[in-house]
Amino acid sequence: MHVHTCFSSDSTAPVETQVRKALSLGMKHIAISDHQDYDYPPWHSIYLLSETGDTEGYLSVLREVREKYEGRIEVLIGIELGLQVPLGKRLDRYVAAYPFDFVIGSTHFFNGRDTEDPALYRDCTEEDACRAYFQTELDNLAATDAYDVVGHLDFVLRDLPSKNRYFSYRTYADLLDEILLTVIRKGKGIECNTKTLYRGMGQPSPDTSVLKRYRELGGEIITFGSDAHQPDWIGGAFVEASEILRECGFRYYCIFRDRKPVFLPLAQPRG
Ligand SMILES: [Zn+2]
Ligand SMILES: [Zn+2]
After folding, report:
1. The pTM is what?
2. 118 CA distance to ligand 2 middle (Å)
3. Cα–Cα dist 156/160, whole Å
C-alpha cells in the first residue's frame, strides 16, 4: 500500500514495472502512492507529482494500468501527501476533489526543513530533534483529515546521526500516545512501513514498541507498505513484518478501496 513510481522525483520506476513485480510475487493488490508535497522551500528537492503537481496526468496513467491488469492484480490509486499545518484545509479540499482509493499522510518536514537536512541535527540533541518531529507530526495529524493512514510514523529516526540506536518508546510516550490516540479518535490508521527493516535498521517504522502500543490503545487499522522506489524493494520484509504484527496482537491488516478500509487476515505463523 506504499509504492513509488517515476511520478515521484526520487524514483525512476514506471508504474507498470512496479505492478508487474507485485504480480510476480503473487500479490492480489498494489497501491501506487506517489509524493505530493506542497510548499517546500525553493532550495529543497521538489516532491510534487511529476514535479509540477499534475494530478490528472497521474490518475490517467494509473487508470490505464488498472484496467490493463484487471482480474490479475488490483491496482489501487493512492497518494502520499506531505502534511504541514498551514496546508490542512487545502489538503482536505484536494483529496475530496479526486477519486483516490488511499491517502497516506506523512510528515517529511519539521523546523522549516526536510528531515534529510543535516542542519536539523547540528545544534540540538537527538532527543530534542525527535520531540520537535513528533510534536510537528501531532499538529499535522490534528490539522487535517486528508489521510487514511500515517506514513512511517517515526520517520525522523532514519535521519538521526545515530539512527534508531537510542530510540525508546518511553522517552516520547507523552507525544506518541497523543499521536496514536488522535489517529484512533479520527477513525484513521497507521502503516507498518518495512523500508527500515529491509534496509538494515532492524525495526519497521514505526518501531515494534509503537505498533504494540497502538494495538493496546485499541488501534486496528494497519497497512503494509514497503515504500518501494524500485521494483526489487516491493514486498520487502513483509513476512517478517507480518510476524511482528502478530506478536503485537494484530490479527488483521488492511487495504483501502475508495478510502475505506478492507480487513484481511494476517498470514498464519510459519512452522
Ligand atoms: Zn514518505
Ligand atoms: Zn513514500
Report:
1. 0.98
2. 20
3. 7
